[in-house]
Amino acid sequence: MQLKIHVITIEDLAPAGYLLRKLDAVHGFSFVYEETACPYHQRSGRPPIDPVMLAKYLLMGFLYGIPAKRQIEQCIRTDVTLRWYLGLDLFDSVADHSTISQLRRKPWFRKIFRRLFEEVVRQCVQSGLVSGWLAVTNSTHVKANVSRASEHEIDVQEEAGNY
User: Fold this and answer.
1) Would you give the DSSP letter of residue 65?
2) Is 37 a member of any domain?
3) 55: closest CA among 2, 111, 3, 16?
4) Does 2 fall in a domain?
5) Does residue 150 sit within a domain?
6) Where are the beta strands (DSSP E) in 10-86?
7) What is the pLDDT of residues 99-134, one digit of tens each?
8) What is the rounded distance in angstroms from the CA atom of residue 95 to the CA atom of residue 24?
9) Of 131, 20, 141, 14, which is closest to residue 80 (Cα–Cα)?
10) Which residues are CB-neighbours of 20 under 8 A, at least 6 positions away?
């Protein structure tokens, strides 16, 4: 049996109609660099994780319903399309789950992630991916003495903070 040599890139391995390709085409994450300019110091500590990669890392967990950072890390290690979305090559190392967890505990990161979430939702509304007409909440059903006549629909303003 003779070995074959294939010349492919990670770009070739990411399917054309995939959700992350569509998301990448619609959403720009350049604002993340502006939001993280202060806490990311170039002269001290280890080289930082790219803040856009960090934001996309957590966004992928949200989009695919992966609750644990360990699971997100494992999915990124094995899924070529997730690596493509993060800008990682096939042999690049993946950010460790403990590093991501430590960053999420920092107060400045919570503000950044909130801003990131609002910006992504704003871009989704702007591009027509989210209408803002339906808001669903998770609740526990409890019998109550309430009249159905008291129910009413309200329109939610299409501002990211409302979501």
Assistant:
1) T
2) yes
3) 111
4) no
5) yes
6) none
7) 888 877 777 777 777 877 787 777 777 777 666 666
8) 20
9) 14
10) 14, 60, 81, 82, 84, 85
Band of residue 28 on the pLDDT scale cut at 50, 70, 90? confident
The DSSP 8-state label assigned to residue 92 in this structure reads S
Expressed as residue numbers, the domain containing 112 is 10-162
Total Cβ atoms within 10 A of residue 126: 11
Of 81, 85, 70, 83, the C-alpha closest to 24 is 85
Residue that is written with structure tokens 């871009």 in the block: 123
What's the whole-model pTM score? Answer: 0.65
Amino acid at 13: L
Q: Report the 10 Å Cβ neighbour count for 76.
A: 24
pLDDT tens-digit map of 75-84 = 989 888 888 8
Position 3 in a domain = no
Total number of domains constituting the chain? 1
